[in-house]
Amino acid sequence: MLLENLRSRNEDTLRLLRRLVELESPSTSKEALDRLAGFLGECLTGVGARVERIPSRTHGDLLRATWGSPGPGQVLVLCHMDTVWPVGEACRRPFRLADGYAWGPGVYDMKGGIAQFLAAMATMRELGLVSARPVVAVLNSEEEVGSPVSRELIEEEGRQSDYCLVLEPAGGPAGQIKTFRKGVGDFRVRVTGRPAHAGADHARGVSATEELAHQILRLHAMTDYEAGVTLNAGVIRGGSRSNVIAADAEAEVDFRVPTMDLAQALIRRVRSLTPVTPGAELTIEGGLNRPPMERTPAIVALFQKARALACELGFDLEEGGTGGASDGNFVAALGTPVLDGLGAVGAGGHALDERVAVDQLPLRAALLVRILQVFP
Ligand SMILES: [Zn+2]
Question: Is residue 324 within 8 Å of residue 181, measured between CB atoms?
Fold first, then answer.
């Protein structure tokens, strides 16, 4: 009954997904994001939500949609409206259906998840199915740039919630649910040296670029694949001309950590670095942006319940993890269990071959309905 209803509305779900792709929404375009928020606000109202639009001056407005009376014991649903694609991408690479997939910028990460969520809520309304708990959905507009505006709201709602469902894409062809995600942070490493003529006065200079090179090697040497810790000096800058000993240099370093303990140990180690070159000055700023989502017993228990529900629906739900973070990391760090990757099954996130498996949309929406009905 549930699955039939969702299958019969899959054409509508795909039409909605097309519309969401056409309403392009890069994290950097407030105008475009606000347009999408307006459209989604109406969609959410149409499936029985009370919708609050939370304005932002710097980023796209946020949406908070509620069903029932939110408060302690509620369930939190997280979606992000922004994508990594610029305006115009949907003209170059328009939404299309081919080979059993829906293709287009943002379909997988994560407009497919939003379409699935709306389909789930529409079906619940139509069939008179009731969520066991009040539902609060937060749709933010700056997830791809670290959620600087919405983090506070997400954490506030996360504290009130007994568990949290994140509609980020499911992992790989098997559509794995994510039960752990690494934490992400960054360091900005700045070196000040002393400029001098590279020909006439070489010995008097202190080379900031040379010092930065030492520090990059030290930082990269802290990568430990076995422990799951990685560092990457992805951007470096420094110096002014080849015939001047460089006065300044800096690096932007991304790091990933699987646990809070490893994060703290790494941050301590990086902050205690000292210059190798006499006369050079070194400053290191930064730290953790999204804390790790660790695979706690509470998260495993949630996964096992979801797996049993998937089994009733006729498919096997697998679990996995990733080095990429999501807003689920913020909520998990509060001690609220999170099931992440409940969105669309597909492939190619942030890539040109981004796609969503059409026949999986009703199945995953049905799983969402069942979770809301019976958890915990
Ligand atoms: Zn995403």
Answer: yes
Place of tokens 């890069």: 26
Top-level class of domain 183-290? alpha beta
CA 80 to ligand 1 center in whole angstroms = 7
Ligand 1 center–CA 325 separation, angstroms:
9
CATH 3.40.630.10 fits 2-182+292-374, yes or no: yes
Interval between CA 237 and ligand 1 midpoint (Å)? 29
- Note residues around ion ligand 1 (Cβ under 5 angstroms): 109-110, 168
User: How many Å lie between the centroid of ligand 1 and the Cα of residue 66?
Assistant: 22
Q: Which two tokens stand for residue 163?
A: 């568990």
Instruction: Parse the chain into domains and list their residue ranges.
Output: 2-182+292-374, 183-290
pLDDT (tens digit per residue) in 176-235: 999 999 999 999 999 999 999 999 999 999 999 999 999 999 999 999 999 999 999 999
Nearest CA to 340 out of 177, 134, 154, 104 is that of: 177
Interval between CA 146 and ligand 1 midpoint (Å): 11
What tokens appear for 195 in the block?
Answer: 């400029």
Whole-prediction pTM value?
A: 0.91
Alpha helices by DSSP H, listed for 183-315, are 208-221, 260-271, 297-313
CA–centroid distance, residue 317 to ligand 1 (Å): 20
